[in-house]
Write a structure and sequence with these properties.
two-stranded antiparallel ribbon; mainly alpha; 8 helices; 2 strands; 6% strand
């Protein structure tokens, strides 16, 4: 088995998230274990500057979004823009109401989101957490769908769309890449 160093943002907590992280685009170096591999691992770590650069970029982006306030009114306006509400009763309206209720529950009570309630980062966390853990999945299991999104750039697209919608609600540019 080889040691792999890779620039990825995924928080590796299990085999599924490790697979998702390895599937992300980015610099990667694999080093086969041998009696001299210790020196190559140090070289690879320094060459890619993996840990520090990525952590600094991510921390800076999160910090920037945490400094942007989102009031309760703005959160509700974001929900209106993010989840359109059909005028007539029926399945579509029920699904929209359910999504809005779940996003609001995450925003107010979920520990993966609520610590950042009232910030732009909290909005990104709510939408991301919904997509990864709450949204209905068809044609695949949840882990497979999440890995596919990570590999194809769907997670980045979700973040860009979320920030674009929030930017319109706040009437200001959010040129932050998470």
């Amino acid at each position: 088995m080889a040691t792999t160093f890779k620039r990825a943002v995924t928080n590796i907590v299990c085999d599924n998230t490790m697979a998702a992280g390895l599937a992300e685009r980015g610099q990667q170096v694999k080093i086969k274990h041998s009696r001299h591999s210790k020196f190559r691992i140090t070289e690879a770590r320094e060459a890619l500057n993996i840990v520090y650069t990525l952590a600094d970029e991510f921390s800076r982006a999160v910090g920037d979004l945490c400094r942007i306030s989102v009031s309760r009114w703005q959160w509700n306006a974001f929900l209106d823009a993010h989840v359109s509400m059909p005028n007539h009763p029926g399945r579509s309206r029920t699904m929209a109401e359910s999504k809005r209720d779940t996003l609001t529950r995450l925003w107010n009570h979920d520990l993966r989101v609520s610590p950042w309630q009232g910030t732009a980062w909290g909005v990104v966390q709510a939408v991301n957490t919904f997509a990864h853990h709450e949204q209905h999945v068809r044609g695949a299991d949840r882990a497979e769908r999440n890995m596919l999104r990570a590999a194809t750039g769907g997670v980045d697209e979700l973040d860009r769309d979320t920030l674009s919608t929030l930017s319109k609600v706040l009437d200001r540019s959010l040129a932050v890449s998470v």
